[in-house]
Amino acid sequence: MFHRILAITRKTFFYYFLSPAYGIIIFLLLLLPFWCLRLEGDGTALGKFKIYSTYTFLLATIILVGTNIFTSCTVLTRDWRRKSIFLLDVKPVKRWEILAGKWLGIIFLNITFLAILFFSIYLSSKFLSRYYLPELRGEKNVFLTYQKILPSSRKSLPSSEVHSLLPGVEKERPAEERKASYSVLPGAHVTWLFQGIAPTETTLILNYKFFTAKKEETKVIGFWIIGDPSTKNLFRYQSEVKAGETHKIRIPPWTLNDKGELWVTYFNIDPLERSVVFPKEEITLLAPWGNYWLNLIFGEFLLLLIISFVVFLGITLTTMTSTITGIIGTLVFTSISFARDILGAFVHFFVETTGKKTAGVSIYAHFTNGLLTLLKHLLPPLGECLSHNYVGNGIVPPLLLLGKLFVEVFLLKGLGVFLIGVLYFTRRELGIPNE
């Protein structure tokens, strides 16, 4: 069984790899990172690196997804056109082995593409660090990657700690915790606990965003106490920033305690006495992680997940329909998978801004929410697999996220779709394809 599958895999791989069209794809992947070096950033070393890595992975994703839509939807058409599919059907080769060999051949072809892309990124990154970054202002350690850490819990400090940390607070009012946000009333405070941080000598970065009840142009004043109060290694910072924007606080590494924990306390001291709401997903700590090259491998792994699903879907649709219909269907379903979360956010925004009082809006909300729920069950979240979201921002995707995406994109959705195509292909008549 395995030698038959490997024979089909080898033949499929070399047919495409040695073709002139795919030689052009290899040339584009080799040239792409060097072309992205020419893109202008914001004048800083970090900005140059971000736009280089972001566009490299974004354009590589577009090229490889487009290539694999065409490849997966024509891999069976070629055998039908040459009549070789009928020769295989009378030999001791099962039809599912044909599809498995075709899929593996395309995947090995893409692994070769990704290896070539990695080699080109390696060379262009060395070129970037040697010839471009020394001439730009800002930090030079642009290859440092960060691990995104969400707060483990929300803690309330005792009254004595509040009085000692922020003199002048006469009455403690704890923050109100909602389902998806932390609401801090005027004069109240909220404390987050971040855990599992490795010891470091590099600056930590706290990302946060908050909202107020009114969209005002004035800035909101808050006070931050960062560090374990029991150790007295505290970093104090007063912020005066606008609501609705993402802000950063650079935190010295000595604020960590011996357990790898970081306490972050925010006091609402705004003189206009406005309540402040922190969305939970927007409170993140970026801890230095280190290895840029391993992060590239993670990025290519996510890209391979996208490619695997596209190939699964393209082969399945082609076994059921014509080549043109398979290409169009694969393109449509892949696009919806990428835009699934964007569509959901748009629908919720429309409903919230328009209101649910009218019958038309209620019908629209009911229909679209049901449709989005169906899409979430049928299609994988390919938007979460976009590598430039992580590599371009220097963020290491968490291992739990990688495992979750592998299970959902590859095992449940991709392999599930492929098994449907295998069952259909093993039972259908091998006549002339519907063209």
The percentage of residues in β strands lies in 5-15%
Give the % helix. 40-55%
Largest sheet: 5 strands, mixed
Q: Could you tell me the number of beta strands?
A: 13
Distance between the termini: 32 Å
pLDDT < 50 stretches:
156-163, 167-174
Protein described:
The protein is α+β, with helices and mostly antiparallel strands. The strands form 3 sheets. A 5-stranded mixed sheet has the order 9-6-12-1-13. The chain has a 5-stranded antiparallel sheet with strand order 2-5-10-7-8, with no helix packed on it. A 3-stranded antiparallel sheet has the order 3-4-11, with no helix packed on it. A hairpin with a 3-residue loop joins strand 3 and strand 4. The radius of gyration is 27 Å and the shape is globular. About 4% of the residues have low confidence.
